[in-house]
């Protein structure tokens, strides 16, 4: 079975991940969901989540999955525990007595019910009473048109979710109105272009010194150990990372830790630690996104015609959110960072260069733009199932790497 599954994070007011909306499509043959193809696709996804473990896709968070009229009546919903699944009722579901009864039953079983892209009259829509979460698409229903319905929802203690938030300003406005869940790409964009954070600049300088030493023809382990030892926070985090990847019971020196991994792997981990450090006051989902993109880009390149560029692809993916992490535009964020022409071109001129197809594939996958994914998979000589396998492995790697860095 060929299957695409993508996830989009849903945040709380603290910008911590509450859950993930799962977006999916079965194979190349279906361009959209209509009729039985939607039912079969959703059934396949839920069965897959049940068999392989839902935590592989959504970790320990909730899965938001769309249900149409036909799907609501199917009993495979109960394969996923109520604590992990939010049943999203699509906006075009025809509400009849059987649908209402089914929703009431699922609610009594402990499933949260969400109304997707709500555009109906709040006071008269039959499913409002059973709904726990009401989602508003801010493209279709801007915030300034929702004040009355928002107040009604808050009065009835509904959880309000603002979808398609594209800026920090929109996030703050929605939060002030009473929304407590948020979905969109606002978290991966710079908040204040051109802002200079002295603490981050100092930290970045230390990492750049390490990277420059690693890129010498014959890097010195003594110099590397000395530089890492000058920053107690970096030394502690580095030893923790290495300790989790060696069979030794203890690592008694930084220099000894350096010998456990090759220089290429060391350079990779320095980059990872740099991203995590720069993102210390950012949503953890943004740091995790960098890690997932890094592994996704590497896996896509390795499985495709760009195999020789897999290491550069990994670095490109890792640095793809550095503008948001440093609240500067990409060109400013990369100043003083030693990168190959291929990586720098991919980050600054996304539509050009050897890695442009990888860049586009990552962004298309995150937005569940299935037709673009099909086109790019063909260009990269990849099969649809390979794309999803690469994504699933990347999500798992990102989760484990974040755990290592805590």
From TrEMBL:
Residues 1-204 form the EAL domain. It comes from the Bacteria. InterPro entries: dGMP_Pdiesterase_EAL/HD-GYP, EAL_dom, EAL_sf, HDOD, RNase_Y/CdgJ. Residues 200-386 form the HDOD domain. It holds the Pfam family HDOD. This is EAL domain-containing protein.
